[in-house]
Design a protein that fits this description.
Collagenase (Catalytic Domain); binds zinc ion; single chain; 16 strands; 5-stranded mixed beta sheet; alpha/beta; 23% strand
Length: 426
């Protein structure tokens, strides 16, 4: 039933957006400064909640008021804040800005992901590869199909056999992105005789979570200076490796790590007991199994899942009607640039799809600052609420919020729409 709904959405989106082809991978940013070398593995996805990751998205209305909106506001390019690749200390070549680097994984069309299964002489697997594969599939594919509005079709291609790594489990402590890369290289070399990598975009290496030597499963996002995984004449620059945390994150673990592969940053706060500090339970890049873990509209714009015609760029204010991010079509975000690398961003959320557990929908306001490093608060949800998970942040009709000299007022709300006014001044 869910597959049927997703296919329906896919067909609808392909039909309506057929002539508005999502932009190809942006051109290379040759002028970007060199990324600092990483001495620390990619992501440290500190678990903050251990709720079961199972989820049953609610029915999403497919009849939306304005599927291809008439552009409103200024040229959306004025609102594409440039990325700053000097500031990302823990992961390479990822950004909260524009454009996403071409070395990152393509985010539209068919994306083919090799899934390999490895164990160790002193940490042998206790379950079948199928058992581990079922922990991520089909949940991960369905999540991307829905949150991309049918524009990203991820195909997981498993090699369903345990590949025995030549070293012991302690040889693979991933203390740097280079040793992380080498671990994936070894796994790919073991798989190579039985697996064709020639049309593969990304490599995921999994363990039995019960015997995995790794406590968490980071993304591998190569930068040009370190090199990627060379196999079958290809260089594959993106991947992820699983750890024991797969047990409680479930399939959405892969959606988070592949978010990094596609260029997205971590939105939770690193190195603190207060991981929810900046975005609470919003976005899979904030809290993997948060109650509102559909991507922010800003992230979807970065990934070309939201196109320029769906962005209201309001450098001088304005009024428009937003369609909730969980629903295909319509204007998806208002962006108000407020100087340099900063913007105020406004979107609409509803308790639908993968956000079905949020207590109440409404208008969500946040700031984006592309000069702030991954995991340090580049995206900050704005709220006058009191809850630490920020689930009380959405504004209802008649409510307003003021931030950075901008006043945001919700004029009217419908089932899946909010009409929002943006004004400058006192
Ligand atoms: Zn992460």
């Amino acid at each position: 039933m869910r597959i049927q709904r997703l296919l329906l959405v896919l067909i609808l989106v392909l039909f309506l957006f057929g002539c508005a082809t999502p932009a190809e991978t942006p051109p290379a940013d040759d002028a970007a400064p060199e990324t600092p070398s990483t001495a620390i593995p990619a992501a440290t996805d500190a678990p903050t909640e251990t709720a079961a990751p199972t989820e049953t998205p609610t029915e999403i209305p497919t009849a939306t008021p304005t599927l291809v909106p008439t552009p409103v506001g200024a040229d959306p390019n004025l609102c594409k804040l440039p990325g700053d690749f000097n500031v990302y200390l823990y992961e390479s070549d990822i950004t909260l800005g524009f454009p996403v680097k071409p070395i990152r994984l393509v985010s539209t069309g068919t994306v083919r992901v090799a899934v390999l299964f490895v164990d160790f002489e002193d940490a042998a697997a206790t379950v079948s590869p199928e058992d581990v594969f079922n922990m991520i599939s089909p949940g991960a594919e369905e999540f991307f199909l829905a949150t991309s509005y049918g524009q990203m079709q991820m195909e997981l291609v498993p090699l369903l056999e345990w590949l025995r790594m030549p070293g012991s489990k302690d040889d693979y402590f991933m203390h740097s992105s280079v040793s992380h890369r080498d671990y994936i290289r070894q796994a790919a070399a073991l798989a190579d005789p039985d697996f064709d990598f020639s049309d593969i975009d990304d490599i995921v290496v999994m363990n039995d979570p019960a015997t995995s030597p790794f406590s968490y499963g980071p993304a591998f996002a190569a930068d040009l200076s370190e090199g990627g995984i060379e196999v079958d004449g290809m260089t594959i620059n993106n991947g992820a490796t699983s750890g024991t945390d797969l047990t409680y994150w479930g399939s959405t673990w892969l959606n988070h790590e592949m978010g990094h592969n596609m260029g997205l940053v971590d939105l939770y706060l690193y190195g603190s007991s207060n991981a929810l500090r900046w975005v609470g339970e919003w976005s899979v890049m904030g809290l993997i199994d948060g109650k509102g873990h559909e991507h922010f509209a800003w992230e979807r714009w970065q990934l070309n899942w939201v196109i320029d015609a769906q962005v209201a760029c309001f450098p001088e204010g304005g009024t428009t009607t937003l369609t909730a991010v969980e629903v295909p079509g319509g204007v998806k975000l208002i962006v108000v640039p407020v100087g340099g690398t900063r913007a105020v961003v406004i979107e609409s959320r509803r308790a639908l799809g993968y956000d079905s557990a949020i207590p109440e929908g409404g208008v969500l306001v946040y700031t984006v600052d592309t000069s702030i490093a991954s995991g340090q608060g580049g995206l900050q949800v704005q709220t006058s609420g009191v809850s630490a998970d920020y689930l009380d942040a959405p504004l209802a009709a008649g409510e307003s919020l003021r931030i950075s000299g901008v006043t945001i007022t919700v004029l009217e709300s419908g089932e899946t729409t909010d009409t929002v006014q943006v004004e400058f001044g006192p």
